[in-house]
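Posting this for the archive.
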Amino acid sequence: MLVWLTIIGVWSIDRIFKVLVQTNFILGESLKVIPKVFHLTYVLNPGAAFGLMAGQTWIFVVTAVLVVGGVIYGQFRIPHKERVTRLAIGMIGGGALGNLYDRLVIGRVVDYLDFQIWPYVFNFADSMIVIGVGLLMLAIYREEKNQGESATDVLD
């Protein structure tokens, strides 16, 4: 249930933010929230992260479908007690679904989070994918560490 709730929550929050930006900003418009630190800037990204591979929408659609399929498959295989892993894959799935929606409906991804120390604009879905991958890596690291300690205990 945690995976599904996370996917729905991430996708819903992402849609709300994107609709707010699209209805309240003109394409290219920027609002200074914290001058020289953080702005809200409405851009449409035709590519992947950092605008890479612009115009290759089909690759991103196929990738997102595979990711969402993998998340759905994984949620049935991951034990319920592994809450961090389940949360992480839900975040990844919700983020992938959020950007997939944009690609299918408008052909590009709505981005708006503009940290001035970073030259790229991104969105909530992107953030959830990155945080989800980080949590997944942490969960895998912790599991491997625990398995290593268990093996050491057996050898002692």
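Residues 10 and 107 are 20 Å apart (CA to CA). The longest helix spans residues 124-155.
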